[in-house]
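TICKET: design request
STATUS: open
ATTACHED STRUCTURE:
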């Protein structure tokens, strides 16, 4: 199984999947949420290719509502984000907990 959400190059993909695990969203809303968390809103030329890749890999689906496409996770996407979250927690949890900004 190719898990693009667990590849460091796939951090954007993982982040999109994680956001969609909370609720379905359209592309601009995803970009806004990513911007809040990353400090910079990704451009359309960044987010839409990632959405296309996730869709082509069967991890998300898009449902048109008027002019807007609302994206949500497929069953495979739900499994992928669960696996990726567990992987990142194992791989990076101690790094995050030991970082200077996380200490009381």
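STATUS: resolved
RESOLUTION: sequence designed for all positions
ATTACHED SEQUENCE:
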């Amino acid at each position: 199984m190719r898990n693009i959400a667990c590849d460091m190059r796939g951090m954007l993909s993982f982040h999109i999947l994680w956001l969609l695990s909370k609720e379905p969203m359209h592309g601009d809303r995803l970009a806004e949420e990513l911007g809040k968390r990353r400090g910079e809103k990704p451009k359309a030329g960044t987010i839409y290719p990632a959405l296309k890749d996730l869709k082509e890999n069967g991890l998300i689906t898009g449902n048109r509502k008027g002019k807007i496409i609302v994206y949500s996770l497929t069953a495979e996407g739900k499994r992928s984000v669960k696996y990726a979250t567990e992987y990142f927690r194992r791989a990076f949890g101690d790094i995050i907990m030991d970082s200077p900004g996380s200490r009381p």
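CLOSING REMARK: The first strand starts at residue 25 and ends at 26. The beta strands are 25-26, 60-65, 68-73.
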